[in-house]
Amino acid sequence: MISSKIHAVLDYIMGILLIAIPWLLGFEDHGPATALPVILGISTLIYSLLTDYEYAIAPAFSFRGHLLLDMMSAVLLLISPWLFGFSKQVFLPHVILGAFEIMAVILTTKQPPDTKFVIRSS
């Protein structure tokens, strides 16, 4: 299983990779094929910074909510070549990164990180 701390690191790596992948693989001029990973990468970085887990700067929502956003983003990325009609130009990066993100969510421990305040019973 992947801890929330490792998941946080993977989130930042995935966000940066999603933004860069169109230029790294040479499909930066394909409209939706380019725009979607860039938008999802920026979104991933933003909601990662706002998640109640390690390496966030302003925790505003739950780790479980974060995982739900990750899953929705991953499924959208995975099916996007056919949903938005660019599968004839490029599809493998979207499918591979979407599948990787789905596996990361499935393998991540669903328990949030240790809270800062612990309530102890007497």
Instruction: Let me know the largest β-sheet.
Output: none
**SS summary, helix count:** 4
Query: Helical content, roughly?
Result: 55-70%
The ordered string of helix (H) and strand (E) elements is HHHH
Uncertain spans: none
Morphology call: elongated
User: Tally of extended strands?
Assistant: 0
Strand content: under 5%
**Termini Cα gap:** 33 Å
* Arithmetic mean of pLDDT: 92
- The rounded Rg comes to 16 Å
Structural class label: mainly alpha
Overview of this structure, please?
The chain is an all-alpha fold and 122 residues long. The protein has 4 helices and no strands. The radius of gyration is 16 Å and the shape is elongated.
Helix-strand layout with pairing:
Elements: H1 4-25, H2 32-49, H3 63-83, H4 92-107
Helix pairs in contact: 1-2, 1-4, 2-3, 3-4
In short:
The protein is an all-alpha fold.
Observed structural traits:
single chain, 122 residues, mainly alpha, 63% helix
